[in-house]
Design a protein that fits this description.
Elements: H1 14-24, E1 37-38, E2 43-44, H2 51-59, H3 64-73, E3 78-81, H4 89-96, E4 104-107, H5 119-128, H6 139-145, E5 177-183, E6 191-196, E7 205-206, E8 209-210, H7 214-227
Parallel strand pairs: 3-4
Antiparallel strand pairs: 1-2, 5-6, 7-8
Helix pairs in contact: 1-2
Length: about 230
């Protein structure tokens, strides 16, 4: 249950629901393309999401446990509460705790807790709980993606060959192969580097383990600053 100091989803909402019905008038819905689980009916629902449905939503008890169990029975293992604050997260986890099959309920954002990396944090948490992203976009996503503006990539070489006769690796960033630096769209002035270490870093060994030297780290920092336009 969610503790609130006002009536919701019950008989006391009949009068406000009637006013809502009058304000909405006739609401029609198109057939869905993905499975829809209703907390009004406590399971899969293929009917219309019309005015009568939303009136029932306000005046009927929330059958969340039935809907959550129906999703789990259908093989859904990860529930994500998409809201400004996870009001239902505890209730969702309580619905899943008596299940034999492992399942997880997670939140998107929390009130007064800045999301430093946006949905990347959500995807990472889902991955930690066993969800593996496929990376395959559906038809609708691909259709919208074609409308996105193109960004010209800079084809700059990161490493240049050293002078003739110089030892292997001269003129390059020690321990790093050519890489790219990308500015995060959701956090300006923050960059992520995609680097690949080469065999040169194995020449620097500490406690029996190859590590990147301080010189290599300084070279990488200098390269990143130059790529970001700050060097």
């Amino acid at each position: 249950m969610v503790k609130v100091d006002y009536p919701s989803h019950g008989p006391l909402m009949r009068e406000p629901a009637q006013r809502l019905t009058e304000a909405l008038g006739s609401v029609e819905s198109a057939p869905g393309t993905v499975p829809f689980y209703s907390t009004v009916h406590g399971g899969p629902y293929r009917g219309a999401l019309d005015t009568a449905y939303w009136q029932a939503n306000l005046t009927s008890p929330v059958l969340a446990r039935g809907a959550v169990h129906a999703m789990a029975d259908a093989g859904i293992t990860h529930l994500l509460e998409i809201s400004p604050h996870p009001v239902l997260l505890v209730a969702l986890r309580e619905c899943l705790q008596d299940r034999d099959e492992p399942a997880a309920a997670l939140a998107t954002v929390h009130r007064d807790r800045p999301a430093r990396h946006g949905l990347y944090e959500v995807a990472a948490e889902l991955y930690e709980h066993g969800w593996c992203p496929t990376g395959d976009a559906d038809v609708a996503t691909r259709r919208h993606a074609t409308l996105l503006p193109r960004h010209p990539f800079r084809r700059d070489r990161v490493h240049r060959p050293g002078p003739a006769g110089a030892p292997a690796g001269a003129g390059t960033v020690p321990g790093a192969a050519p890489g790219t630096l990308v500015e995060l769209a959701f956090q300006p002035d923050t960059f992520v580097a995609d680097l690949r270490l080469t065999g040169h870093h194995r020449d620097h060994v500490v406690a029996g383990r190859p590590v990147l030297s301080a010189t290599g780290l300084a070279a990488l920092a200098s390269w990143a600053a130059a790529e970001a336009g700050a060097g």
